[in-house]
Amino acid sequence: MQRPPQRSLELTDPRALRALAHPTRLKLLALLRSVGPLTASQAAERTGESAGSCSFHFRQLARWGLCEEAGGGHGRERPWRATAASTSWSDAGASDEMAEASHIFSRTIAEGYHESFLHWLDTRGREPLAWLEAANFGDVLLYVTPEELRETVQAVRQALESVARRTAERQIPHPGARMVQFIAMGFPIDDKDPRHA
Length: 197
Description:
This protein is mainly alpha-helical. It has two domains: 1-127, Winged helix-like DNA-binding domain superfamily/Winged helix DNA-binding domain (Arc Repressor Mutant, subunit A, Orthogonal Bundle); 138-197, no CATH class. 49% of the residues lie in helices and 7% in strands. The protein contains seven helices and four strands, in the order βααααβββααα. The strands form two sheets. Strands 1-4 form a two-stranded parallel sheet. The protein has a two-stranded antiparallel ribbon with strand order 2-3. The chain is globular. The model has no long low-confidence stretch (mean pLDDT 88).
């Protein structure tokens, strides 16, 4: 498998966030990052979309630098590859347009996380015991300052990046290794939210 460059692409243009806030484009980008280069026809087989639709969405992703042609082939048989291993964005101190685009994009991402996790819950009965014991589902309530939360998020990110670097260096994954989605969230709770009263 040809892995994407181990870098994060920061999106600072609200138009790029709006373009990526599309479930099919997010699925295609995730495939390019996890599977490696794909043609529109191959992507169509994996997503259930048409090859024409995948080709269109690849071109939209390429427009914002999220993927590029990998060389070889032509038309719908030319392969595309991801340009980075991850995407980052921020609306802290941003314009109203960027804040709105970031909100739409963040909600789309969160909805995808939700669907992915519900799929795991619905199908985990078919999983081997080792994977059931290794998987994690839970939360911790903390009383922290913004600085302490930032430090905690950074510590979690560094731990995950360390594992990601180590596994990315392997040419062939260990036997039994699978792609795992690790979703990390840390956010302040609304004092008026009755769920946490």
